[in-house]
Amino acid sequence: MASSVEHRTINVNGINIHVAIKGPENAPVILFVHGFPQLWYSWRHQIEALSSLGYRAVAPDLRGYGDTDAPAEVTSYTVLHVVGDLIGLLDVVAPNQESVFVVGHDWGALMAWHLALFRPDRVKALVNLSVLFNPRNPSRKVIATLKAVYGDDYYINRFQEPGEIEADFAEIGTEKVIKEFLTYRTPAPIFLPKGQGFNGKPLDTPVVLPSWLSEEDVKYYTSKFEQKGFTGGLNYYRNLDRNWELTAPWTGAQIKVPVKFIVGDQDLTYNSLGAKDYIAKGGFKRDVPFLQDLVVMEGVGHFINEEKPEEISKHIYDFFQKFSSLSWFPSCCVS
Known about the structure:
By secondary structure, the chain is an alpha/beta fold.
């Protein structure tokens, strides 16, 4: 499939962005936004499926990843930078489309939430996977909260000091790190104690690949992360508090685009940080008032678009088909 995908390098927002594109030139665009530690490649199944159904699939490597530039400064990886990249990319690849469909996963979901928050005029409808909208709490910074709840060995907290976790990953080996992340199926947070493997396992514990992840897939990811390193992707985590500061003007703001949210019941994000309560007690619907569908897939882990590609592609197609005309407007926008 990959050989039939067009690969382009586009200069926007001061950096060169690699983007994979497939589908009819003037078809409605679906922007696919990947997470960590992934690449455009994580959408390979959806690119094939949705382009064959009449959409134009556009999947970039985000800044710091794959064949896209990786600015050296940690501060160059805020939500404002990445959303700026996505807007600039859309201006080039979809110049005649006022708004596009968006699909995000993991950090890509977080960026897609912010794209919809900052520029709802550019998002026709959104399908987000795995990571819920996380409204800004004006009284609590992110990292201090995570340290208070989970301690210093919690993976996000271990990612904070530049160079430290990179050295640990170098000791483990790039391929092993990729395998550990992509095969993680424990419905609980990840802890990375110094000198040990994931959740304290011995470093030499073998990793068995599931049926949905091939050695060829792992080799593609490994080759790109060996070239680029993990620092660009880790820098997203290192900007959590900076994002908290920068997004103060949007405190209390809602996501005002139509949304479908899909998560696996074995996903670590669904089983931590109060995610289930946030959904069950109405917080999610309050903050995302145009939430139309919420799907919890049984027996599915975090990397849901790779683990269940056909089901996810169908969910995306069925939802976006509702908005194939321009006749839908949220009630907030009708005068």
